Amino acid sequence: MNSSEERVLTDGFHLVIDALKINDINTIYGVPGIPITDLGRIAQAEGMRVISFRHEQHAGNAASIAGYLTKKPGICLTVSAPGFLNGLTALANATTNCFPMILISGSSEREIVDLQQGDYEEMDQLAIAKPLCKAAFRVLHAQDIGIAVARAIRAAVSGRPGGVYLDLPAKLFAQVMDAAEGQKSLIKVVDPAPKQIPAKDAVLRALDVLKTAKRPLVILGKGAAYAQEDEIVRNFVEKTGIPYLPMSMAKGLLPDDHPLSAGAARSLVLKEADVVVMVGARLNWLLSHGKGKSWGPPGSKRFIQVDIEPREMDSNVEIVAPVVGDIGSCLLALTTAMSDTWPAVPDGWLASIKQRKDVNLERMSSKLLSNAVPMDYHCALGALRTIVKQRPDSILVNEGANTLDFARSIIDVFKPRKRLDVGTWGIMGIGMGAAIAAAIETGERVLAIEGDSAFGFSGMEVETICRYNLPICVVVFNNNGIYRGTDTNPTGGADVAPTVFVKDSRYDQMMTAFGGVGVYATTPDELSRAVNEAMDSGKPTLVNAIIDENAGTESGRIGNLNPQSVVPKK
Length: 570
Description:
- The protein has 3 domains: 3-184, Rossmann fold, CATH 3.40.50; 200-354, 3-Layer(aba) Sandwich (Rossmann fold); 369-559, 3-Layer(aba) Sandwich (Rossmann fold).
- It contains 22 helices and 19 strands.
- The chain is globular and about 80 Å long.
C-alpha cells in the first residue's frame, strides 16, 4: 500500500472533542489527570477553550453556570474516582437547580471494576451517578462516542434541564478507527430542547382564575430567567399590570426599580395575595412551600403555575390552574388570549404595595448611607449597591449567610441573568466557579460578593482567576467567622469556638500572591474606591472588606432551619 492509500485514523480522544465541537460546545472546565490529561491538551490544540481549575467541584460549578447562561450544557471534565466524586457534588447541584451540565469523567476498566479486583481509582461511577442526575451513560466503543454525546446533550437541555453523567473508561480514549467512519458516527443534535406548547384549555382555565383576582401576584423564578424569553415575560407582566416578586436569580428580568416590582414588599404580597401566578418558580423551602404564616390563612389564595415539568404541579399545595410548557410559549399564549378589556388590577392593591415599599425603602436608606467603622452589612452593601446600579451589564455573584441575605434585598439588578447565587440548595462554595464561568462565557466584568466562610470553600481558585487574567473583583466580607466572629470556647480551652476564624485574616494577600490586586478596606469609601478601580481596570482583584464581627445573625435569615439545643451546656 503506497502513502496515498494509507488509512487516516482517529481515536477516542479526538472523537470526544469532535462530538462536542460539532454541537457548538467549545469550552471545557475541569482538572487534568489520569486518564483524561491528553483530552484537555488535544482539545486546546483543536481550538477549544480549556479552563483548568484547582478542584473539580469548582470546575463543575463553573460548568453548571455556563449551562445556565448559555442554554447549552456546560462541560466539566474530571479524572476518575475521587475527581469524579468531587465533580458529582456540582452535578447534583446542577440537576437540583435545573442547569444543563455534562460531567465527563475518565474511569477504570470495566472488567476489573466488575470483579472488584482493585484497579487504580476503581469505582463503579455510573451506578453512583445515576440517582443524582437526569441521565447517565457509559461508552465502551469509539464508534459510539457520537451517539453518547448527542444523547447527553439532549438529556441535559430538553424538558426541565439538568445534569448528565458521561462515563469514559481509560481504554476508550486509545481506541482507533477509520477517521472517515469516525466522522460519520458523529451527530449534530437537531432541536435538542423543542418548544412545548401549552394546551388551549389550560391557558383559558388560568385566565379564568386570574381575571377574578382582587390581589394578584406574579412570582418569577430562575426558570423564567433561564428561558431567555425576556420580552415575553415583560409583556405578560405589563399587559396584566400585576405586581411581581422576583426570586433572587430572576432579579433583573424586569429591573428592580420597575413600578410593578414588589420585592421591597415581599412579606405583604405573599401574605395578602389571593391569586398567585408562579412562572418558572417552585413552591419549595425558599417560598415556605406555599403555606404557613407567611402565606396567610389556609385557603386564602389560589395558585396558577407555569412550568415545563408537569410533576411539579401540586408538589406542596393545590395548583388550581397548571399551565405546562416552556416559559415563552406559555406566557405568549396567556398574553395573546387576554381580551382587550382585560380587567385592571385594583388600585387599592397597588397602592398598599407602594405604601409598604416606600416605608421599607425609607427605613433602609439611612442604614445604607452610614459610615460606620467597622462596617456593618448595610453600609458596605450600600456602597456596592451604587456600583452595581452604575454598571448594569456587570454580573453579580453572591454567596454567604448574612452576606447573601442582606445583598439579595439591598442590591438591585437591572438586566436579566446578571445575578448568580447559591440557588435551590443554598449551598456555599459556588462563588469562584460561578464568577469564572460568568467571565468566560459573557466577557463582562464580574463582582463576587462573598462571606468569609463561603469564600473559604473555593478561595484557592483566585489562582485560576489570575492565571487566566479574568476581569473578576472578589469582595470578601470579613467578620472573623461563620455568622459572627464573637463565639467563645465555653470550656476556656485553647481551641477557638467552631464558628470562629483567624482574627483579621488577610484574604487580600491571597490575590497578591498570585499576581492580582489585593486591597484591605475598612470604610465604605475605601471599599467603593477599590471596587470601582477593579471594575474599571478588569484586573483580578480581591478586596478584604472588614465587617463588624458582631453584625451577623445565626444562619442569616433562615435561623429557623438551624435548631438550637434546649439542653444546657455542661
